[in-house]
Amino acid sequence: MSTPREVTQARWNEPVVMEMGVPGRRGAVFPAAEAEVAAAVGEASSLVPAAMRRRAKPALPEMSEPDVLRHYLHLSQEVLGMMNISLFGTCTMKYNSRLSEQISLRPQMADMHPYQDPRTLQGILEIVHEFDLILRQLSGMDQFVFQAAGGAHAAYTQTAVTRGYFAAKGELEQRNQIITTIQAHPCNPATAATSGFEVITLMLEENGYPSIEALKAALSNRTAALMLNNPDDMGIYNPQIKEWVRLAKEAGALAFYDHANFNGVMSKIRARDLGFDACMFMLHKTFGGPKGGGGPATGAYGCSAELAPFLPKPVVVKDEASGLYDLDYDREMSVGKVREFFGNLHIVMRAYAWARAMGAEGIAEASDISVLANNYMEKRLLAVDGVTKSHPHLDEYRLEMTRYSLEKLKEETGIGVAELSARMVDFGVDAPWLAHEPWLVPEPFTPEAGEMWSKEDIDTWCDVIAQIAKEARENTDHVKAAPHNAAIHAIDGSALDDPARWATTWRAYLKKHGAQARRAAG
Amino acid sequence: MRQDQTRAHPWMPNSVPAAKDAMLAAIGANSIEQLFAQIPEDHRFRGTFDLPPALPSEVELKKHLLKTLGKNRSCEENLSFLGAGIYQHHVPAIVDEVAGRSEFLTSVWGTPMSDHGRNQAWFEFCSQLGELVGMEFVGLPVYSWGCAAGNAARMAARITGRRRLLVPASMDPERLAVVRQYCEPVQMASHIAVETVAFDPRTGLLDLDDLAAKLADDVAGVYFETPGFLGTIESRGAEIAAAAKRHGAVTIVGVDPISLGILAPPSDYGADIVVGTIQTLGAHMNCGGGAGGFIASRDEEAYAREYPTLNVSITGTSVPGEVGFGLCLAHQSSYGMREEGKDWTGNSVYLTAIASAVYMSLMGPEGFREIGELIIQRAHYAAKRVAEVPGVEVVFSNGFFKEFVVRFDGTGKSVAQVNEALMAKGIFGGKDISADFPALGQAALYCITEIHGQAEIDRLVDALKEAVR
């Protein structure tokens, strides 16, 4: 290994915007109404019912435009993001084409209204339809919709479709259970519960996935659906998945494939071929949409022809005779809406652009590279004293992720994943994903190499882990006091769940912390 | 493998053979295919994908995207009066500049230290929105206004232990469909019954007699909006909230925050939970993709502990005087408690929160007052002028903010016919609501914002005169 460089993040000590500005300063001004307008309607205040007039001005900052710009530029510099290397597992860090960013601001994308006549929406509807066809190819499903604004929202869509499907069969009251696994993303059990289902969670066994026997014991005529991912976040593929789906369907249930971890298997398998009734893709992960700190995102939800009548509406359709696209709202069996309008189409546009730039061969190659890079990274990380992996007895190559544990290092030095994450930032490398709750592996961390990071980047990342493991033994206190070079020092987490101290707004902060707050923040 | 092995893909540094070979050698594998040994052969797809040809060259990709999107007709090159939940407000240039910064654009979930600037921007979003709506607890945004209303209904049900929600019959059918989804179908044991309260056909306001008839001690929440879907300002918010309170129900108010420079904050008239859109605060319409919603309330534990959102709190650091920001009440989310968590949490529209923070910082109290005054005056001017068109009637001619209902029955034309004629002149007429609200006749919902000057309104009126002839 080589010793990684340390990097100093910008440290602006930027005040909270609520204490900035000077009374009277303006960042945006608007004209007065035209003289004829004002003459025709009178004063604005006369148009507001007296009981509903605002009496006290909102206590917002009063700032000039350049001051606002500079404040937020400073804040942006205090975010690491993908300014360097970020191998955030389960989220598939991917290059976000800046061409797509530019195009998203064009009026033909940004200034489009969802209720325009579909004849004026032909370009964007064509993109939606063409991208639907691409996803049908990659999954074997018969129809995709894009109304869900994230992966969890697509899981929710699945639970809504499940309700619609069984309600139509008159079985919904009976089929009120959904089965998932402890390694499925929390959104699967959570959306199932929000939709009113009982949740049964299967636990992992020796091989890294639940047993067929456990599944059989859980399945019954009360089962509405199976919701799971494969491979899981440990990079382990359940080779019995076809049998799982067969058993679920034999029990009369639906099978939903959460393709959160699609990068490692894209072009290698197709959900429908394995028997699944529906699946979802995250366009802000696998398909190159930007993370944005957590959206705007898109959960593309696709299903079989049998389930398609229940999809949220509208569905984009093409009239093959005229070649024109339309929005089909006339869908009697539809479960209705999971969100207003028909999706984050500016994200769908980006995903379509990504898929076109890659092509079928590029998509297959991205999958190859992500799995190759993960196994290369595994080789390097397991050479670090203190790092182990989950299920070490399973020695097959993992797919696009491997889950590691810092348990040994923690026992030997007191340095665990929290300290590691904080110290990594000093090298300009952002913290990795750890693991969803509950942690099945002590002190877990889950990097994902993907296809956008070069071998040199992966080497640097591993060098940083090795360096910190070394420091853990030689200079423990230095690691414990990290970060040293970040925008701020380690935060005090003790207030965050204390009702007397938490404050999600400035006005709550002032109320709870008073003058001290102003001094501290100033 | 790409056939064109001699050329690397611009987005894949490891597509050069040397990188692949070095990694294969390091792990002792002979081929990449070997790495997929976990997947049984009978699971593998061995066919070919029928995908359109790859466009790895940016110049070609750009040409293709622009050609395809060029088939759209935008609201910039046309004159649009569409609203109904997505609005064409001006987005200041620096909002796009900040939201487009690579740091914000590509951030995911680092530490509170490495994400400090973003977390502060989120806190500033919540803080400024809190000032507009008059509330002290504000969560990070949810997917949309309808989703926020749905979450709020579920919060109210958990807080009260009751399962009835009252909503106005004048509510946006689209938004209502989302709320119904969140409240579950009747077959589910935890179903929340959604019942509509009539509106006064003369004023568009909630029918307080019908509200009184439906309010009882089993109602979890009373939801109303101001301005409502039909544009009207609900002038009796305090009476509605007081009635809800008498029955122990939670008052949930939906707002468009761009109106709050001139309209009273919902806290003034008794709201317990405030929801609404953030699209009007600096998000482009994006064909509906600009949608975003928020949830706010008083900072009371009973409420705070029911939020399904991510919540960011200000806190200190190891250095006295320094502030940082961390997730608060994180454990109650589905990330902490899976199916026991509050609804579910995941990706949302968090970049839009940053855009909205910039927008609100630019506007300040005077910006919000000015834009509110300008919009309400021009909207009333538009309504007055439109009503001059023979046979055309403005249904609720008083007490609206930026949207109003136009009835065409007196012209003998349908809204569809009128809009067709307007479109031929480069004008997108108001949303046709005649199918959703048959009692209103051939009715369209027109929207006026700060982008519509007198000249544009006069142009609409001239075009309408011809259209109804």
From TrEMBL, chain A:
A Pfam match is: GcvP2_C
Q: Does the keyword Phosphoprotein apply?
A: no
Q: Name one GO biological process term.
A: glycine decarboxylation via glycine cleavage system
N-terminal signal peptide: none
Q: Which residues are in the Aminotransferase class V domain?
A: 162-292
- GO CC terms on record? cytosol; glycine cleavage complex
The protein's UniProt keywords, in alphabetical order, are: Pyridoxal phosphate
Q: Please provide, alphabetically and separated by semicolons, the GO molecular function terms listed in this UniProt record.
A: glycine binding; glycine dehydrogenase (decarboxylating) activity; pyridoxal phosphate binding
Organism of derivation: Salinarimonas ramus
- Tell me the protein's name: Glycine dehydrogenase
Q: What does this protein do?
A: The glycine cleavage system catalyzes the degradation of glycine. The P protein binds the alpha-amino group of glycine through its pyridoxal phosphate cofactor; CO(2) is released and the remaining methylamine moiety is then transferred to the lipoamide cofactor of the H protein.
Q: Tell me yes or no: is Nucleotide-binding among this UniProt entry's keywords.
A: no
Glycine dehydrogenase C-terminal domain: from which residue to which, for each copy?
366-480
User: Where along the sequence do coiled-coil regions lie?
Assistant: none
Show the InterPro entries listed in the entry.
Answer: Aminotrans_V_dom, GDC-P_C, GDC_P, PyrdxlP-dep_Trfase, PyrdxlP-dep_Trfase_major
From TrEMBL, chain B:
Q: Which UniProt keywords are listed? A: Oxidoreductase
The record ties this protein, via Pfam families, to: GDC-P
Q: What is this protein called?
A: Glycine dehydrogenase
Q: Please give the start and end residues of each transmembrane region.
A: none
List the InterPro entries hit by this protein, alphabetically.
Answer: GcvPA, GDC-P_N, PyrdxlP-dep_Trfase, PyrdxlP-dep_Trfase_major, PyrdxlP-dep_Trfase_small
Q: Where is the Glycine cleavage system P-protein N-terminal domain?
A: 19-427
Q: Which GO terms describe its molecular function?
A: glycine dehydrogenase (decarboxylating) activity
